[in-house]
């Protein structure tokens, strides 16, 4: 089977690798003795999270949360829902959200508010990519990978209609 739309490589795997290594160094510097709780946003962050945690050599916990924002296709829905919540008590914990891409910022600003209400000691954000030109709600990215153009990206966890998450590079779909 082949893809109906051909993906063109935008960020090759070697470059992603360097970025993940840099982010891991920044996170290590800040969280080594903090009993870090890393919170990945499903599904898009699963590949990034897997690469990132394997570069951290101190004790930490991994959790995932599933939010609905894009139900299908490419458009942001205005409201965000928690589809699969946290079983963990966040009170007093240092939480680092791990996200594949920040687009309008709607998903992240919702999640940061939600986590602060759960009385985490700190809530920060690590995002592999930032589509900054699309921002509608301001979001502070504490650990930022790369700024990306306003194009629909797939691969390295990012999907279009649930396809392409398995591509090892970040790609753009050609028309
Ligand atoms: P936001 O709420 O608009 O910032 O959207 C964030 C979510 O939309 C991300 O977690 C992604 O799952 C998804 N998303 C945004 N841009 C893209 C893209 O270019 N490709 C795939 N998914 C995207
Ligand atoms: Mg996502």
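^ structure tokens above, recovered residues below v
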């Amino acid at each position: 089977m082949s893809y109906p739309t051909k993906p063109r490589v935008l960020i090759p795997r070697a470059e992603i690798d360097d970025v993940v290594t840099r982010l891991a160094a920044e996170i290590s510097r800040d969280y080594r003795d903090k009993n870090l709780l890393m919170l990945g946003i499903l599904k898009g962050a699963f590949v990034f999270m897997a690469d990132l945690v394997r570069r951290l050599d101190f004790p930490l916990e991994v959790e995932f949360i599933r939010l609905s924002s894009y139900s299908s296709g490419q458009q942001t829905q205005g409201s965000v829902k928690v589809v699969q919540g946290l079983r963990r008590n966040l009170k007093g914990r240092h939480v680092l959200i791990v996200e594949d891409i920040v687009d309008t910022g709607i998903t992240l600003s919702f999640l940061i508010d939600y986590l602060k209400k759960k009385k985490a000691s700190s809530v920060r954000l690590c995002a592999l990519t930032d589509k900054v030109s699309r921002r509608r709600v301001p979001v502070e990215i504490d650990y930022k990978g790369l700024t990306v153009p306003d194009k629909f990206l797939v691969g390295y966890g990012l999907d279009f209609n649930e396809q392409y998450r398995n591509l090892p590079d970040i790609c753009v779909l050609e028309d």
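The pocket of magnesium ion (ligand 2) is lined by residues 41, 44, 99-100 (CB under 6 Å).
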